[in-house]
Amino acid sequence: MKSGREIHTDTFYKENGMIYYNVAGQSVGVPESTVERVDESVNDSVLDERLITIRMPRYYDVASTLPGVENGLYEEVFLHKKCPVFQKVFGTGVLYAQGCGTGSGYWILGKANSSSLELETLASLKHVPKGHGPNYHGTHWTATDGRVCDVLIKSSQPPATTGEEKLVLKFNGFPNGFFNGMYKPWAIVNGRIAYKMKKAKDEATIELRSGGEGKIFYYWAISFGNDTYYHSAPFDAPDTFYPHEVAAWSHKGMAKALPGVVGQVSTEREHTFEFQL
Q: Which of 55-59, 67-71, 120-124, 152-156 is the least confident region?
């Protein structure tokens, strides 16, 4: 800690600007701004068996005949905001709360504007008591013109694909060498586990993305910062392909594939990953 205090724990995770760790079976959080550093190399034998906990996002199923609303599954995203935000899985729809810390807040249903950074509001649910979600039945959804509209929102289970094995992956064969190494489960992105590799202060990630304006397709992308360096060939269904099963990666700006890259499940360490709802 920046105060000079040391905290020893076998389990920790970061979320919304906080670092949480376990003490006597209880989860305790401290602001990340008060932490000088997290030393994961003090006792390597302990780290091999460390339990890493990642909280699963919440999900809502949205159904409405209101024009512009994207029906389907909305996934909670962590954006370091006080109020919860949900996004349509592989879509531009948004569902978010305002004034959630007050006695009576409201929820907004809308979508992202592809030509700007602004959000288009389609409907709102006002006078929602503190702690209630967008499926609150004490009031009605109203469209932007003030008329009551039919919006049905209910809690939903995560997609089956989020229950996949929490694999630790190892990659070799990338030409620049930077992306070679161990990747560990990091977060849920678009309903699938994303993997992260950390070298010194740099972090590379592998995540599932969607593309296409007509027929949606999916691909695994390896990125560093805001740049995508490698990507897999596109495939149709998000639950049929894992990053270590990619036979050839393509380099950014190159049509030539890189078939020499080998991804495999790592057995060098025994990591246990537990996802909490």
A: 55-59
> How much of the chain is helix, strand and coil, in % rounded to 5?
5, 50, 45
The answer to whether 276 and 51 are in contact (CB under 8 A) is: no
Model confidence, pTM: 0.59
Which amino acid is residue 175, in one-letter code?
P
Q: 3-class DSSP state for residue 250? A: strand
Rg value, the chain, Cα: 21
Q: Cβ distance 206 to 221 under 8 Å? A: yes
DSSP lists the bridge partners of residue 261 as none
Q: What tokens appear for 253 in the block?
A: 């700006």
Query: Which strands, in side-by-side order, build the sheet including 141-143?
Result: 141-143, 119-129, 104-112, 93-98, 85-88, 72-77, 59-64, 151-156
Tell me what percent of the residues of the chain surpass a pLDDT of 70: 78
Dihedral sign (CA 204, 201, 189, 225): negative
DSSP string, 5-48: -----S-EEEETTEEEEEETTEEEEEEGGG-------S-HHHHT
State the residue for tokens 């094995």. 165
List CB contacts of 125: < 8 A, sequence separation 6 or more: 106, 107, 109, 134, 136, 139, 140, 141, 142, 151
Stated length of the chain: 277
Specify the 3-state DSSP secondary structure of 158.
Answer: coil
HSE-up of 208 (CA within 13 Å, CB side)?
A: 26
CA-wise closest residue to 121 among 41, 195, 66: 66
- pLDDT of 68 over the 70 cut: yes
